[in-house]
């Protein structure tokens, strides 16, 4: 076995392997991903999904998707549907493994009654503000509520009446009776239930009390007989509470394990902020291709494989860090390089007339390679005719010596076609270049000169007569700064939004083969990057740029 055959393991895999060795869970591995349906999934969630579901797949276990639908005010069916769709798109089969925290509302209620009977929970009538004040701070112990000493009977009666809807929102809560002086604030009699007279997407008006996250979450894990409950680091301080609830009830008790959440440069990841960007129209929606959401990345042209390989590549750690967004971009570049068909597309066209081309109607159909990385992708025919388009920035009138593209008197290769030489420049009344006059060398068909003559530059091009019109949307980072929070006093994270994150090019000319492209199809436009057909695409094609190529060539030219 060579070193590269050894699968890299992270600390969570080590825990799982240990447990399998000792038979801690009778050899079972059962994980879950518990999103709150209050927004769309983002790339951070993808990391958690790949970790949780990936472990289950790796060790022959099972995984659940469990919606944490305990706050009806912020949660919507739209989000539930989008989350399930995104997970399937990532490549995880959810089969019949979709659950809801609300599936267990009745059982959780019964468990709460058990705790009350044990003298471990009580109904408190303090207002939310008072509860906060009584709670104390990190340096100051909390104070006990005057209602803490209520009898079991009184608590049972009040809790039942809470459920029946006899009290208004905020008038009572059910709290765990733990320790108001605990150094861990989460243990200072945390709230288990609050009153909310709100309709729930799934349970409708059946309930007007809703469980709090810490209470609900561990019970969900226990009921589903999860083995490893993997969550992000901010829950480390909640672990004693997770354990307390399950131990007091004496029920099945999974192991909580924390890992570092993913942060990425040039973007934000909190759902609250993403929602703000959508609501304030800084982006066109949750699936705007500039968003770090899975639906945005999908629309942008990211493949599920590239996202999974990115998640595997960044690994799993115990300390928070921010990953450079170029690593995500590299992942999709690498994946698309292997599979995307190559096509020619001129994004900012400049007309070229081949003066010595036999006639206006002569067309030469040339062979072009579909993917040099994949010979099985074959070849296609591209038409060459008298009038062509090349990229505006592939021509300079006063070109420096090292500009290896087209300039007056210089010769370049048109990809898969001929060598051409620029003989004249046509300008309009404002002095703008509107057309180039060129000659071609008929002996260079296919792109090589029989006399061994070399040219430094190879340009992509499209035949004008055959070109397909398209709009191309070119994206840049959503935030100009690597860390959007890096702002001066008095300014906020939205002040670092990149004003140039979207450039719309409306006059693009594509080779005719692309006429058949369907929404979601991905291509490499030679020398321009990777592009994907947008769902908006109709009779007029619309492409999104997924990512640029590493254009080493452009760097040389700038020197
Ligand atoms: P946000 O802070 O964006 O609202 P959240 O953690 O409240 O995120 P949930 O829907 O509760 O969102 O997340 C579901 C799961 O995804 C949780 O287990 C959470 O730990 C995990 N998760 C959320 N964000 C990230 C991230 N950036 N990296 C890794 N895991 C994450
Ligand atoms: Mg959460």
Fold and architecture overview:
The protein has 559 residues and is of the alpha/beta class. Among the domains are: 106-213, Glutamyl-tRNA Synthetase, Domain 3 (Glutamyl-tRNA Synthetase, domain 3); 341-559, Ribosomal Protein L25, Chain P. The protein contains 13 helices and 27 strands. It has helices spanning 11-22, 43-58, 77-90, 105-117, 128-134, 152-164, 213-223, 239-249, 271-279, 294-300, 304-314, 325-339, 552-558; strands at residues 30-33, 62-67, 98-100, 121-124, 173-176, 191-195, 209-211, 228-232, 255-259, 262-264, 321-323, 341-343, 345-346, 349-354, 364-369, 379-384, 387-391, 411-414, 419-427, 433-440, 458-459, 462-463, 468-475, 502-510, 522-525, 529-533, 541-547. The strands form seven sheets. The chain has a seven-stranded mixed sheet, covered by helices on one side. It has a seven-stranded mixed sheet with strand order 21-18-19-20-14-17-22, with no helix packed on it. A hairpin with a 3-residue loop joins strand 25 (522-525) and strand 26. Helix 2 (43-58) packs across helix 11 (304-314) and helix 7 crosses helix 8 (239-249). It is elongated, with a radius of gyration of 31 Å. The protein starts with 10 loop residues before the first helix and ends with a helix. The model is unreliable at 1-5 and 551-559 (pLDDT under 50).
């Amino acid at each position: 076995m060579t070193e590269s055959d050894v699968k890299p393991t992270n600390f969570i895999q080590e825990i799982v392997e240990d447990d399998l060795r000792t038979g801690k869970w009778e050899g079972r591995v059962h994980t879950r991903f518990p999103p709150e349906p209050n927004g769309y999934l983002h790339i951070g969630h993808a990391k958690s999904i790949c970790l949780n579901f990936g472990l289950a797949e790796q060790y022959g276990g099972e995984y659940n998707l469990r919606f944490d639908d305990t706050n009806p005010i912020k949660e919507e069916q739209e989000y539930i549907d989008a989350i399930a769709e995104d997970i399937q798109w990532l490549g995880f089969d959810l089969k019949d493994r979709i659950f809801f925290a609300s599936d267990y509302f009745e059982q959780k209620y019964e468990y709460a009654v058990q705790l009350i009977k044990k003298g471990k929970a009580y109904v408190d009538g303090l207002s939310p503000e008072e509860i906060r004040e009584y709670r104390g701070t990190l340096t100051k112990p909390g104070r006990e509520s005057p209602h803490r000493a209520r009898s079991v009977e009184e608590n049972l009666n009040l809790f039942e009446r809470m459920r029946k809807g006899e009290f208004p929102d905020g008038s009572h809560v059910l709290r765990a009776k733990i320790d108001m002086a605990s150094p861990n604030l989460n243990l200072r009699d945390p709230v288990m239930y609050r009153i909310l007279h709100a309709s729930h997407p799934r349970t409708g008006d059946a309930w007007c009390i809703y469980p709090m996250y810490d209470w609900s979450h561990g019970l969900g894990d226990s009921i589903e007989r999860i083995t490893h409950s993997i969550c992000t680091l901010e829950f480390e301080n909640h672990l004693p509470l997770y354990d307390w609830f399950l131990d007091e009830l004496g029920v099945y008790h999974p192991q909580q394990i924390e890992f570092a959440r993913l942060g990425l440069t040039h973007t934000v990841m909190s759902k609250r902020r993403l929602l703000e960007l959508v609501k304030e129209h800084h982006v066109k929606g949750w699936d705007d291709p500039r968003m770090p959401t899975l639906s945005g990345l999908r629309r942008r042209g990211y493949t599920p494989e590239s996202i999974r390989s990115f998640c595997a590549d960044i690994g799993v750690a115990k300390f928070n860090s921010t990953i450079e967004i170029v690593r995500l971009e590299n992942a999709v570049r690498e994946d698309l390089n292997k599979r995307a068909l190559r096509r020619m597309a001129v994004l900012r066209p400049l007309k070229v007339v081949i003066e010595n081309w036999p006639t206006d109607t002569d067309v030469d159909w040339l062979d072009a390679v579909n993917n040099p990385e994949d010979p099985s992708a074959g070849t296609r025919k591209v038409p060459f005719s008298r009038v062509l388009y090349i990229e505006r920035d592939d021509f300079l009138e006063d070109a420096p010596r090292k500009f290896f593209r087209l300039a007056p008197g210089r010769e370049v290769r048109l990809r898969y076609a001929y060598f051409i030489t620029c003989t004249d420049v046509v300008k309009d009344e404002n002095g703008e270049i509107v057309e180039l006059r060129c000659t071609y060398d008929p002996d260079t068909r296919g792109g090589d000169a029989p006399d061994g003559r070399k040219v430094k530059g190879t340009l992509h091009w499209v035949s004008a007569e055959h070109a397909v019109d398209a709009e191309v949307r070119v994206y840049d980072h959503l935030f100009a700064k690597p860390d959007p929070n890096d702002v001066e006093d008095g300014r906020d994270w939205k002040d670092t939004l990149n004003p140039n994150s979207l450039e719309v090019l409306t006059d693009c000319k594509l080779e005719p083969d692309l006429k058949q492209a369907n929404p979601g199809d991905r291509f490499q436009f030679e020398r321009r990057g990777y592009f994907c057909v947008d769902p908006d695409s109709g009779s007029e094609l619309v492409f999104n740029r997924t990512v640029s190529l590493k254009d080493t060539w452009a760097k040389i030219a700038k020197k």
